[in-house]
Amino acid sequence: MGLLGLLVPCDAGxxxxxxxxxxxxxxxxxxxxxxxxxxxxxxxxxxxxxxxxKYLRKxxxxxxxxxxxxxYNYCKGLHEWYxxxxxxxxxxxxxxxxxxxxxxxxxxNMIEIVLNPDNEIIGGEVLDHGDDRxxxxxxxxxxxxxxxxxxxxxxxVGAVLVVARAYMLMKQTPKAKALxxxxxGHPWSLEDADYLEKCxxxxxxxxxxQNKSEQANTVLRTILQHNASSIKAFEFLGYLREKEQKFNDxxxxxxxxxxxxxxxxxxxxxxxAYNLLKCKRLFDCIEVCHHVLKLYPTxxxxxxxxMDKARMSIRS
Length: 316
Known about the structure:
Elements: H1 3-14, H2 33-45, H3 49-62, H4 70-82, H5 86-96, H6 103-115, H7 136-152, H8 157-169, H9 173-181, H10 193-209, H11 213-226, H12 231-243, H13 247-260, H14 266-278, H15 282-295, H16 302-315
Protein name: TPR_REGION domain-containing protein
Domain Tetratricopeptide repeat protein 21A/21B C-terminal ARM: 137-311
Organism: Heligmosomoides polygyrus (Parasitic roundworm)
């Protein structure tokens, strides 16, 4: 069953009244947060971000006190995290972290956000240019530990991701690539979905860095087939089209990433504005620049290198 096939009964059942208390489905209670979390994930993966917003609004409408519930705050944290809002996600998860039922998973997510607030592709080289993570001895120890972990968890996609990241940090790219290619055709499941997507994104990063655009495109299409709201996948596609000087196509992909990030990610806004400038969509370009500068008044270069050039082109 596809994502839409899962989402429709989720949508229909989440807000309907149970026929009897004895036979009520977990999806029939508006404050059943396990169901809500699942519906949010399905909505995002199916590309229906507006549906995800609707689910959270309806939870409050059905129960005005939901905003203090740990389950609701966990779900809100997920939504903010998917939207590229790490600070808002941390605040929501923090309100859930002392709860017996939701606290452990909220804490795990908080740790991941703190370690990787910008949701970088750890080990990747194309889009992310972070600092060097630890010294060589630490990286080597991490790689050996990860390899032992993989031997114990042969069929685990999560283990593949951990070891591939360790190889990348050790600059052992061929080993990482060989490992990641093992999961290209791995059966997709909702339980493995996040790990698979991160593996595929890292593999796409490797292909792009090796100028293998066709293979990268194939992997990125696979990602979007399973998660139509993958901001990083759209950003990669924009990067590829920009390299090919297909600026209209690049702008379209960056625009998808920009909207999915709720127009709050200045780096994506900059790339979108640049490609809009290159394809002569000058008024759209200026509008994006204004939006970035409104949120980040000191964001470097966007005014001088893009907005001022767009204005000059309009006047000439």
